[in-house]
Sequence to fold (120 residues):
Amino acid sequence: QVQLVESGGGLVQAGGSLRLSCTVSGSIFTINTMGWYRQCPGKERELVARITDEGTTNYVDSVKGRFTISRDNAKNTVALQMNSLKPEDTAVYYCNADLHYSPWYRRDYWGQGTQVTVSS
Fold:
């Protein structure tokens, strides 16, 4: 069993900051890429940012320069620092981990989602 538990969502005014955190626990062999996705009502889930086990990052264009993803491999955590938030960042944010739960088996896992609301 693998669990991803997110925290840090909430309500913030435009221009403000929030920090999301996600902890992966359970039967883990290795964690490969970790990332954050978001979904607005009526829209598809989109990638916001991801980070490889070696620290390589990439971001969706709309958050470049405002969001920073980081991970702590020793603690199996991934964080998303969100600055200069805009109303269009409002969404449910989901943590994702691509991991091996044994030396031979690999799959994606998702957190339960955390709401981020940015008021104008």
Q: What stands out?
A: The CA atoms of residues 15 and 41 lie 22 Å apart.
